[in-house]
# Entry
Amino acid sequence: MQYLLMIYRNEAELAATPPAELAAMMAEYVEFTKGIIQAGQFKAGDRLKPTSTASTVRVRNGKVTTTDGPFAETREQLGGYYLIEAKNLDEAIGIAARIPGARVGSIEVRPVWPPAA
Amino acid sequence: MPSTREADREVEEIFRREAGRVLATLIRLLGDFDLAEEARQDAFAAAVEQWSAGVPANPRAWLINTGRNKAIDKIRRDVVFRTKVFDRELASAEADAATAFEESDEATFGDDRLRLIFTCCHPALKQEAQIALTLREVCGLSTQAVARGFLVSEETMAQRLVRAKRKIRDAGIPYETPEPSLLHERLQGVLAVVYGVFTEGYAATTGTRLVDAELCGEATRLGYLLDELLPDNAAVLGLLALMLLHDARRAARESLSGDVILLEDQDRTLWDHVKIAEGLRLVDRSLCISGQVSAYAVQAAIAALHVRALRKEDTDWPQIVGLYEVLLRLQPSPVIELNHAVAVSMVDGAARALDLVDSLAARGQVSQYHLLHAARGRFLQQLGRLREAGCAYRTALSYAALEPERRFLRARIASIED
# Structure
């Protein structure tokens, strides 16, 4: 079963993090990613640019409207994701708990529908 | 040859005894709650027809095999079910079915029941859903009975159960006992569910007494089941002891008019001394398991000191103060601090207790907690500071929501102003 692990974090806090701390965390991410690739659990994963770069697009009656910023203002913002393969929810939760960002932000774990037959 | 009525009774007795185990094992074999429930129902219906000639040697294996075969037939027949997922399940169920189910090992059935408990109490489900699922699937209560216990309509409860089962399936909540590294943490969730069922029954402020007793009884039975499945676990034993020691006092804690009777004023002859003896035995066993101190066991030990006293004057308050201090280290909370202060008032007097409560109040977290103000009122009254005591009781009254407690506080205010 595939799960999308969405990494949420307060962007203002992230921006204020000292560079040395940030570098240490990036190194941890590299380690973590290597680990799940070796375990055959990694499908995809990326870091996202901050929500200040986001646009929201809607099509109504054939007309495209684009607005600045994310769809919803929240205390923590989506900053990255992993798409993983796991045996079940417990395994997915176990992987999510090892994401370095889980210690400062939160990880939403969502099962992915299998592709339609 | 037994008479028909006797035979019916025997079959009924087997159903009652085996329902939980058969369901738990069918869920493992079929991988789906609803399919398993239906399969069990079909197997029981088939048994009523076919057992009239005689009950098979191993009725449990018979019920499980029949249920599984009925489910496989159903999947094959029902084109609506023929999705990719079910095709895969069908293939694996058919492969398993090639070998008839003959497990006679009690441990396997125990494992299946434990799996079911951990699945129903998975932290990815809301706690109210965990409690409802456990009562429905593990205890075998009807949806109607679960709904009645929680004072919601049957329809609301049915919806809650459907949503929970759908999440189990769609989110991939495993039907497994957690691995050892997670067991302790996940067991805390299971125990919270069991205690939640108990307190729902014990502290219910509406509904009939029958419902209260039913929920308390189910919680205690769950406690015994956990003790059977996870023997010599300090937390399981501690919780079981705590429930028994509370439940033993049920008959004495409410007056005929429905008013709360404080522990110190209860008629101790109304306590259930069989439950008390069992609770005391279990709390001792829990505390003897080295390396594990459970907060439930410490609470049970406090309850034990209360019930051990034949008269309220005999209560060992210094030891109760000590146990509250242990509890505060294990799981600090304002409610426990408040209870600690009450115990301190019995040992060192009201002045010392008032200091503790004032320092708790000064931290601000619980300034709207009515029992804090009620305790302040009581300490001030004991110190003869009646005007301040009246103020404290009135503050308590302004935050208290339950009618019996409000009546109690009004009576206290009246006693001062007389």
About this structure: The interface with chain A takes residues 83-85, 122, 124, 170-174, 176, 178, 182 of chain B (CB under 8 Å). The mean pLDDT of chain B is 87. The two ends of chain B are 77 Å apart (CA to CA).
